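hey m, so remember when u said the tokens were messed up on ur end? i reran from scratch. heres the input so u can diff it against urs
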Amino acid sequence: MILKSSIARFAGLSLGKRLTLLELLAIKRERDQLSRMDKAALRDLGLTQHDVSQEVARSFWDVPRR
């Protein structure tokens, strides 16, 4: 429990739901997978290479608010 709150504080998260380490690692993994997609797959998702570059450059604790 202490580790989770420490990570959330370190990450500057003030979300109602605190993220677990597993969730943060899943975000990192998803960004890695996104970076390996080819142009056709990105086009299917409506993304550009620039969009992907910006997302992949984010830190794993930098989570978009939903």
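this time it looks ok to me. The chain is about 60% helix and 0% strand. if urs says something different then somethings off w ur setup not the seq
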